[in-house]
Design goal:
Strand content: 5-15%
Shape: elongated
Largest sheet: 5 strands, mixed
Order of helices and strands: HHHHEEEHEHEHHH
Helix content: 40-55%
Distance between the termini: 63 Å
């Protein structure tokens, strides 16, 4: 009260009326100023740390993941406070927009069943691979991306880009895998013809890999692959311009490296796929 009325009355007079020693007032004022300065310094430090985390992670992290990264650095901060500081910094995580995925090919209707049956948690590396395709505009035309994902740690172990949505796109993704295929037991996809054909059959037969197909028109049967592409569109594709296929490939190469080695995943305890895999090896 004394501080708020210093412009109207003298400090001595107010202290006398309130029976407070002037030294007490000045001491408390000094402490309050120090606390305010410490708070400002702490918030500036947090802002710097938040900005670094945000920029180092392709400007896609929201309050939840930034909170986890701050905890790793020894800071305990609420998501509400992080959100306020992000607003003050003028930064905002990218958000996912609903998208429609056109079906360019008819799903096959053969007798192959859904062997995976939504068992998305597996305990062995490279034992179950899931795959899907998505589309992206390149120079005004639709081009395609294929991912091969290891269910064990959600790592993108193979990928390819191309002008055609066909078996060759999937075959190139298989050829990009650096891990041995001998341990793969199941390969799960939707029923698109690009996955069910002689070329893919030969690969699966060579390594004795069992095929698993989603039920017709049920995207939840391939939820991990669907979710991965949803993330890709939010964090890389949406709002970007690709004049050539080479430009798309280079951007994808950089993104996959970040996704596998740095990006934290809530389903993996906020570790990256590679860090999660290494952590489990240490436990074993």
């Amino acid at each position: 009260m004394i501080q708020q009325n210093r412009h109207r009355y003298s400090v001595s007079a107010m202290c006398k009326v309130l029976k407070i020693a002037r030294s007490t007032f000045y001491y408390e004022t000094k402490i309050a100023v120090q606390k305010e300065q410490e708070k400002i310094a702490e918030e500036n430090q947090l802002k710097e740390k938040i900005l670094v985390i945000f920029k180092e992670n392709r400007q896609v992290y929201g309050t939840r993941k930034i909170k986890k990264e701050l905890e790793k650095a020894g800071f305990t901060v609420s998501r509400r406070r992080i959100g306020r500081l992000m607003d003050e910094l003028g930064i905002q995580s990218k958000y996912t927009q609903p998208s429609y995925k056109p079906m360019a090919t008819q799903p096959n209707e053969d007798s192959v069943h859904n062997v995976l049956n939504r068992e998305f948690k597996v305990d062995k590396q490279m034992s179950v691979l899931v795959s899907d395709l998505t589309y992206v505009k390149v120079g005004g035309n639709w081009n395609y991306i294929c991912f091969l994902i290891d269910l064990y740690n959600r790592e993108i172990v193979g990928y390819s880009v191309g002008e055609q949505k066909d078996a060759a796109l999937v075959q190139r993704a298989f050829k990009s895998i650096i891990y041995p295929l001998k341990n793969v037991k199941i390969f799960h996809t939707d029923r698109g013809s690009e996955f069910k054909n002689v070329g893919i059959d030969e690969i699966l037969s060579e390594y004795t890999i069992e095929r698993s197909l989603s039920h017709k028109g049920v995207p939840f049967d391939n939820a991990v692959a669907e979710a991965t592409f949803k993330i890709l569109k939010t964090e890389l594709i949406n709002g970007s311009h690709y004049p050539t296929l080479k430009k798309l490939y280079l951007e994808l190469f950089d993104y996959v490296n970040w996704y596998n080695n740095i990006r934290s995943h809530s389903t993996l305890g906020y570790l990256s796929p590679v860090a999660y895999k290494l952590a489990l090896k240490k436990v074993v």
